[in-house]
Amino acid sequence: MYPTDLVMPMKAELTDKGFEDLATPTQVEDALKKSGTTLLVINSVCGCAAGAARPGVVYSLTGDKKPDHLTTVFAGYDTEAVAEARKHLAPFPPSSPCVALFKDGELVHMLERHHIEGNPAGAIAANLQAAYDEYC
């Protein structure tokens, strides 16, 4: 488990932009049941989360279409919440960071770590914006 002092600034990069921090399995379950579209970011301390995932996700929200609900959990910190979130990401294997888009509780788009790692934030944003255009 990562120390709070390390994790909080990384969480704030999303929560300061309107993402709901899901810290318990119940919060995850409730968030993913909501009608409409829900973006779920499994956040991480790794470099690709800092350099591409978080900035790309934030940039993706500058377009015309956006998810109705923005949510995040933190791998290595919100352990039980992340485990609950990953139950909803099947058939995809555990991956952090990763970004999932749900529509009416159904997983409709997924960016795994291997889609994020090595790509610039703009590519992450463009991928997500294409999903928003289709599902939001």
From TrEMBL:
Which domain of life does the protein's organism represent?
A: Bacteria
TM spans, by residue? none
InterPro entries in UniProt:
BrxB/BrxA
A Pfam match = Disulph_isomer
Family the UniProt entry places it in: Belongs to the bacilliredoxin family.
Spell out the protein name for this chain.
Answer: Bacilliredoxin, YphP/YqiW family
Q: What organism, scientifically named, is this protein from?
A: Chryseobacterium taihuense
